[in-house]
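Working notes for the structural subgroup meeting. M.R. asked for a predicted model of this chain before we commit to crystallization trials. I am recording the input and output together here so anyone reviewing the notebook later can reproduce the run.

Input as submitted:
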Amino acid sequence: MLEPDGSYKTTDMALATVLTMNGYTPRMGRVGREVEFTIACDDVDGFMEQLVEDYIDGSCRVEPKRFVRELRAVRKDVYRLMDHTEARRGTKLSR
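Returned structure, recorded in token form:
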């Protein structure tokens, strides 16, 4: 969401990953139980706004392998910020 001061904030990790893949550097901050990604107002430009619109519309295209790699790095940073030692693993169901 575009803030009144001109910065852009989101809690969407996939969107933050797409922005990272396109050369933007979102700053992470903890807000309660969520992580908020912020792009400074100096870095917000027309290309970034179009990228966000394309993402929201579902027309944003990314290279899948690179996206997974970048998402893994962003998720690792999020876990570090939230003080999780490792990602939660699913538990096996006994049947």
